[in-house]
Specification:
Blueprint lengths: L1 H25 L3 H26 L4 H29 L4 H5 L2 H4 L2 H6 L8
Helix pairs in contact: 1-2, 2-3
């Protein structure tokens, strides 16, 4: 019974990874692509490793460490990439279509050395 549940979790994780790949192709800008890729790959990888641990219970400690590593590093790396893209001047979709309230950029002003900010 645990093998069936493990196989279903692996299948669900593979589906999330497939949806992440579609999100990377279909999303319009770098920030949306990062969001789609990070959220779906984090959950998809976790489901796959939980499924592996149910299918092969002798190695559940290794899978738990992998889950923790992915859970901690995936959002951090996505944040670092988004911050680098933002400071590089890559425009977000909101700058083209957003209202004036959403176009205000406090982070750029805070990081601008000419305005007293530190990068």
């Amino acid at each position: 019974m645990t093998e069936i549940i493990g196989a279903l979790l692996v299948l669900a994780g593979a589906l999330f990874l497939f949806l992440a790949a579609l999100g990377l192709i279909r999303m319009p800008d770098v920030y949306n692509r990062m969001q789609a890729g990070t959220k779906a790959t984090t959950l998809g990888s976790m489901l796959i490793f939980i499924g592996f641990s149910l299918y092969n219970p002798g190695h559940w400690q290794k899978y738990l460490l992998l889950i923790l590593f992915i859970f901690l590093t995936n959002p951090l790396s996505s944040h670092a990439l988004a911050r680098a893209a933002h400071f590089s001047g890559i425009p977000a979709l909101l700058e083209k279509y957003g209202s004036p309230e959403t176009r205000r950029d406090d982070l750029r002003e805070a990081g601008d050395p000419e305005q007293g900010g530190v990068r």
